[in-house]
Amino acid sequence: MDDTIYYKRTIVKELVPSVSLGEERPVRVFLPPGYQELLTYPVIYCQDGEQFFNFGRIVTHMNRLIFDEGVEPAIIVGVDVNTAVRTSEYAPEGERFEAYTHFFARELLPFIESKYPVRTTPAERILAGDSLGGTVSLHLALDYRSLFCNVISLSGAFLRESRERIEREIDLSWLRLYMLIGLDEQEVVTERGTFDFLEANRSAKKLLEERSCRMTYEEKPGKHLWGFWQNELPAAMKLFLK
């Protein structure tokens, strides 16, 4: 098969108005090969949208899965973030966290669903994020469970606040989670300090399992980098797409 088909893409750039954030938030929307407005599609919502598209190569992965493995086409929505305020939006103790999660659930979803034929059941929505993007994705699922039940976490920053949030739950059997963590992520330098992400993910895994979360958990040699996550993303996507 000619490789060029993997790299053809239709990406629409949108500005989503947000009262919660007091601004318009740029998003990029990938429409899969053969896209038709008369059909409906599962949808992947990515934190760090620009990075998922550029460094995660999620569009190329989606095309390969469609053409090579017969995976059902999905629309992909990448939500951009300003790196200067990323931690305050994605970290649960961040000053913009509540505004961002409210924007995501109550402003972004209606905007996308009014313009694109995405499916609107929790089972057909997938949240994806790396590092703190994995954190905010899990919190979105926990806080808006009527909207989300599928999460892809690439080296999620499941630090104390997130583990305490999981501990407040009793039954997480409704939640499907893919967790990837690198064996070389024991000293990850962040804005909030240096943390052992491997141990944090192991601790979060235990808490989630105790609450019957349906989980695929993988530890592999890898650092806290897109070079690691990019290669594991297709398998994660396949778990949630028919």
TrEMBL record:
Signal peptide: none annotated. It is an enzyme of class 3 (hydrolase). Pfam families: Esterase (PF00756). One of its GO terms (molecular function) is endo-1,4-beta-xylanase activity. The keyword Hydrolase applies. It comes from the Bacteria. SUPFAM superfamilies: alpha/beta-Hydrolases (SSF53474). Keywords: Glycosidase, Hydrolase. Its EC number is 3.2.1.8. Gene3D superfamilies: alpha/beta hydrolase. InterPro entries: AB_hydrolase_fold, Esterase-like, Mycobacterial_A85_antigen. This is Endo-1,4-beta-xylanase Z. It comes from Paenibacillus konkukensis. The gene is xynZ.
